[in-house]
Design a protein that fits this description.
The chain is α+β, with helices and mostly antiparallel strands. The chain is built from 13 helices and 6 strands. The strands form 2 sheets. The chain has a 4-stranded antiparallel sheet. It has a two-stranded antiparallel ribbon with strand order 5-6. Helix 8 packs parallel to helix 9.
Length: 393
Amino acid sequence: MAALADLKIADLWPTETHFFLARLRMGTAAALKHYLIQEHGLLIRDASNFEGLDAAFVRIATQRRADNDLLIQSLSLWKHTYFFLIPLLGGWLLDKLLGDPRWMPHPIVLFGRLIAWGDTWLNRGRHRTLKGGLLAVVLIVGTFAATWALIVAGYRYGGRWGIVVPTLLVWLGLAGRTLLHEVREVFYACSRSTNEGRRQVARIVGRDTSQLSAREVRAAALETLAENLSDGVVAPLFWYAFLGVPGMMAYKMINTLDSMIGYRNSRYLRFGRIAARIDDVANYIPARLTAYLMLAVSGRRSLIPFVRRYGRCHKSPNSGYPEAALAGILDCRFGGTHTYFGQPVEKPYIGTNPRPLTMDDYRNSAFVAHRTEAMAVMLTAIAGIAYLFFIIP
């Protein structure tokens, strides 16, 4: 009974017999009974037919030690499926089908408001580096803790909410469909007029777009696609694999901090310094993983030296890698000098072919992005299964 209690999947009550009563915190007795019989040859008894008990109640008998150990292992697998694989796959499918819903409150909006509040009240006077660092750490740790508490609350409130809450958060933590939609709209707008393309690309990039040529508009959109394939898809999945939904949401806070205060200008050079360094660390592995997944799904492993060479050219220690992968796959050139907040910023070129970019380049990029995303989800699921079989005793 103690081992079952440690799993935290049910509330337990002893009885006067060798059975004890359990009320599942997730799923139904019938579903669990079917799973244990079909997958492990184990039998538990449904207790929902007793007066006053609902469909979540089961009776579990204490048996020989070997049988009890098998039951605990089976329930561990069931729990892991509920709390890791179902939110992962459910959230990913929701993102693929619906993208970011405008009608639904989004955590990034809340993150942005919290960061803006901290910027307004703390980014002044002395010790800006310290104050900006404290803001970043408090918001990141607070996001992790708040997400954990929200999931636990849903878990305690009822079995369905224990699945619904993390699934919704995974959905909101991914940005694959929305990213491709925004980049596609830039290409459509640019095909109508360069001015319309400039206005559309300004929605997804931080640079001044008013003087960009049609090629530069399309290049900016594809650079954003490559960079945000890491930031908006692969990196959240990477941190989900290691730290679950709280880790994914903490990463989204890190990424939002960097996008708002991680600039190297007079206002944020000191205040956003620590937030930017945290973002560099959080994205170090995901950015490189994204680049190599892009090469793998496109069958272009021969471009690995190209990615290693040009991935280092970007001012960011991470963004250059997925951009170099896409530049190599498309045989084009990214980078160059652009204007940010009224100041020209020189960026080394990534790639060597300054050819015009067309709608076919978007289609090829979208194909690579779709397959990279699917591969990342598959690897995340495999990581969860490996954790289950090789770490959980």
